[in-house]
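Reposting from the mailing list since nobody answered there.

I have sequence plus structure tokens for a pair of proteins and want to know whether others read the tokens the same way I do. The first protein:
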Amino acid sequence: MRVISYNVNGIRAAVKKGFIDWLKTNPADIICLQEIKANKEDLPIADINAVGYEVFSYSAQKKGYSGVAVLTRIKPDKVIYGNGIMQSDAEGRVIRADFGDTTLINAYFPSGTSGDERQGYKYQWLDEFFAFIKDLRKSRPKLIICGDYNICHQAIDIHDPVRNKNYTGFLPEERAWMDKLFANGFIDTFRHFNKEPHQYTWWSAFANARENNKGWRIDYINVTEPLLQSLKHAEILPHIKHSDHCPVFLEMSN
């Protein structure tokens, strides 16, 4: 099973930059998209189906905002839209797909960049999401949690940890939540294979940040410990450029 997580920053914008041609290269069996910014009727479903992927999407109530989708060549046994928490579901932040005894959660974590109110909601969402996955693990212990977390975990995950220490996405409370996640039996699959610095998944649009590789690693595919022995390979794909993010990739054995 090959899985990709990718914040496309608008699926329609990504299509104009060659997203469908990229899908034709068969980059993964399951591709989890965040920030699709489109209702179901506005998605290029026919084009995606034509290259072999089935589409399951969950849009925000607000048009042109947030939203997640799962593109898959492997038929899921079950798809569940949302996590049953009102505001999160209104913003189209979580979609679940079950494949045998493995459950995949594709999530678009809130950003706090627009101010204190949204930062406060980000902390609320993190607490609610942690409780959600903790409860889910009781019945579905093999979990894959992928998406745009909007959090850098450690100094190695950000180009300038000193100057960014007071910025949302690298605040102590956010990083502590990541500590808690990994202390509770989740594995950072990229770091499991790669300990090198300067590996990022998002770059600002300003000051040639991407060209100079001044980025943040805020996109993850994390798994629970029962899947540890299934991990084969993980990498970041910075050469794929349909968005200000790039895809992250995980290969697992069946």
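The second protein, same order (residues first, tokens after):
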Amino acid sequence: MTVEMMADELSVELTPEQRETMILDHLPQVRLIARRIHERLPDHINIDDLISAGTLGLISAVDNYDSSQNVLLKTYAEYRIRGAILDSLRGLDFAPRQKRRQARQVEAAMAACEQRSGRPASEDEIATELNLSLEDYREWLVELEHVQIGEFDPSSPSPGTVLRRLADDHENLPSVVLERAELERLLGASIGNLPKVERTVLGLYYKEELNLREIAGIMDLHLSRISQLKSQAVLRLRATMQKRWPTGRGY
């Protein structure tokens, strides 16, 4: 009996041997997803830890799969594997305190420049606001490459934190659905206002799930420049969302 035939019959309890076969047949999917996520993380994150978390997600997928929902087991497993890996990462602190401080300084500089000019600040303007040379500012951006939209000091919640907190047992409450829709609308509008090159980098990175090296090849730019643009775009979004989504809202 093939794996797909087993999946079609999951309404009937699997034997331990069938269950083990299905899990083993999908382990390459776990490794593939773990590798893709690992490419986007700091070097100190152990890929074996991601694979372990993803394997737990796979086991959960096999045990809870319902073929009557007309969703392939592979598709459902990918969702559970990715979710388990991301859940395992959420408690980790990717950015040292000094990097978080630098990120906040960049966000404040961006906000100050934008308030004066009424448009997204250029790199030269941000560097001047920070009393840095353009070269030093770009070095900061490379160092801040792993600062994500949702990584804020615990005392300074972010839109990314809001979205994660909304995804709980109460996510279908009308108030929660409306708040999430409003937050996503604001985030979409903020992305739309980014400079085109930064918007392109974010789209390739987050939507197409390409790594920085792949993006550099597509855009014919140096890898370090893609890293700078990605960091700048994320920090620009954080600064914008801090202003448009007050921290006292939704917590």
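Reply #1 (J.P.):
I read it the same way you do. DSSP finds twelve helices and no strands in the chain.
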